[in-house]
Amino acid sequence: MPFAHPGSPWGSLKRRSAAVGLALAIGLVPLALSPVATARAAPPAPTTTTDRRAPLVDQEDQRLLQIRSVLAALLQSGGPTAVAAKQPMIFGSSHGKTLVLPSLNTDQPYTMADLVKYGGKYVRRLPDGSFLLGIHVFLADGAKLVLQSGARPLTIRMGSLPTAFSSIVSLGGEITVKGTAQAPVRILSWNPRTGKPDTDSLDGRAYIRAVGGEFHMSYGAVADLGFWSGRTGGVALTGTDRPSSESKHLTKEQRHENKEKREQQNKNRGGGGGGPGDIEVEQPGGTATHVPAADLVTGSIDHSTFGGNAYGLFVSGSNQTQITNIKVTNSLVDGLVMHRFTKNATIENVSVTGSRHDGFVLARATEKIRITDSAAINNGHNGFTVNGTALAEGPSASGESLETFGDSSINNSRAENNGHYGIELLGGDKLSVQNCKVVGGDMGIVVRSAATRVQISGNRLSKQVRQGISLRDGVRDASLAGNSISGPRTGIYLRDSSGKLTGNVIKGADAHAVTLLGDSDGTEVRSNTFEGSGTSAISTSRSHGDVTKKDNNTDHWTDTATLWMKARRYLKPMNFIWGCVFIVVIVSMIRARGSRQRFARFGIHPYALQRPVEARETWRLPHRGDRPRTRQRPAEAQARGTGGDLRSTTVTVPGIPLPGRRQDPNGGQPNGGQPNGGRPNGGRPNGGQPNGGQPQRGPQPQRGGQPQRGPQPQRGQQPQRGPQPQRGQQPQRGAPQRGAHGPQPQQGPPPGGPPRQGFPQPERGGV
């Protein structure tokens, strides 16, 4: 087979231009300028000891760089060399042979017939009408290639051997694959040795790639292409890091027309632009803040199928790509991948089935991508994965922005029986999942990695193992509304996240309808309907923060918590303390409801045992000379007929002699003296002697020698306006009580002064 193999011999190249010298320096020259090998070397044996796919990807990158550099050098050299470089030719290098198709001066595109014409023995027609491509095809900047079916379907078999494979790569050009519903364009890898498609990607396989420019496909069928990386993964649309020079392929009138458009755009922007207007300016974090608009690939893919590719369809560095009505099956890695710097893409009515990893992937640095009416079924990992996290978390070598990405959505789509999650959202801002159906999987919809302002509404989830919807790891301001969840152990699960849960219906949960764990401050659970059984419909025992629960319908929820679990639910330390306080208050209120009940309960009035202060016992220190005496209460004695003699209430301490006491200024006997046997003297003992019958050692002068002006009040006692009742006698409301001999004058204060007010104080006796 006429395949390009490495190790082609090179002859000496003399008297060539400087451009050809540059080509020799990098090991790549057009085959028209080099001697033709007389014999083809046999292909080396396949390498099975190590995985060669990563080195093969690196070789492909080097080959493309060499071709681009040599072609640019030839075009700039001028003269016959530049003229020859504007014609299709075959370049050879250590990485294989490449058919280079430069831009033509006309608007006519290259076709399959041109590939056969310029490819020579490396492109040939097979007996079944298909074409075998045994060489790399490179479409230069500004060139166009159209692969179109005619009356019969167009089938291209891209050669793929263990040691060599073919490819179609456009660098700033335009590739169009156009078939019909009755006659689609079929492109597949082909091993001529086995006569079958190449299904082994370990040694490299054929692929199609558009680097910048445009790519359009309709009614195409692509199978068994690609290996290892996204850009060599099958069918890849990628941007370029080198500004394209498409303007030089325009006519003079077209260039003037574009200039007027740019000037008008700059004028509308207020004159702030500093260039020709081909740099897109967006807010920080946008996908095209540093990518020229001309270097983003764009295109459309419609009514096509991709089966058995490494990556079913890979898109990066693109703008406004339209992907509709396609089917991706049995991809070796992911089904449909929208990689970095892809924006404003539309994915509609796309089905991805049987991928070994994820079905749909929206990687970091993608934004404003709409997925509608699509399905991810029976994929090995997630059905849909949307990653909106920032490209860097701090300073980085490439100086990437710290802003997150977002504004992407999944609407009216299905995720059924995928190996891990149905839909997973990682980080980002303003991501949404609406009106989707999720069946099976470990979890239905998972949102994590500090995503913000996520909207999940109107989705139908069923048959999940653990959780229907899960928000965790710092998700904030999420909105979950109108979702219907059936079957998982826990309907909605929040861990260290917050959101508003409104109008959701959860059925068949057997653990909790809603579980809140960790920091759930600001979470609201309102107007939801919960049906199922478990220890609680809303579990907040392991969460903290302000959580609002209101108007939730739990009529059909069966609480299976044990008595001990219910007790633990409410017996918190503060609840226990407040419970004790309330119990004390309630008991006090019951006891104070009425005095009758209280007296009846204890059988005695609370103040029944209380006595007036005057009737209480007086405790005093014993003094030398004290003798036991009696105290009279004349009024009571005469009324009762007892003779007026009462025992003293003074308590003495035995073993110590009692001293004598001074006279009571009121004429009473507080010192325990004995009365004179009930003499009718009005209660005055000893014949009315003022000293109470106490023997005196001598005349005692009064303090200060002042004559007494009349009865003086005791210390701490108010002056009396008339006779006062004696100690121990109740005062009469009528006439004042008098003795037998009339009112007696009161004695002056004792030497120690009048007694203190309040309880009776002990008196000091003479020593």
From TrEMBL:
The chain crosses the membrane at residues 575-592. Residues 692-745, 756-767 have a biased composition (Low complexity). Residues 669-691 have a biased composition (Gly residues). The keyword Chloroplast does not apply. Coiled coil: none annotated. Residues 300-389, 408-552 form the Right handed beta helix domain. Pfam families: Beta_helix. The keyword Protein biosynthesis does not apply. Keywords: Membrane, Transmembrane, Transmembrane helix. Residues 243-266, 618-629 have a biased composition (Basic and acidic residues). It comes from the Bacteria. InterPro entries: Beta_helix (IPR039448), PbH1 (IPR006626), Pectin_lyas_fold (IPR012334), Pectin_lyase_fold/virulence (IPR011050). Residues 238-289, 529-551, 618-767 are annotated as: Disordered. Residues 529-542 have a biased composition (Polar residues). This is Right handed beta helix domain-containing protein. It comes from Actinomadura meridiana.
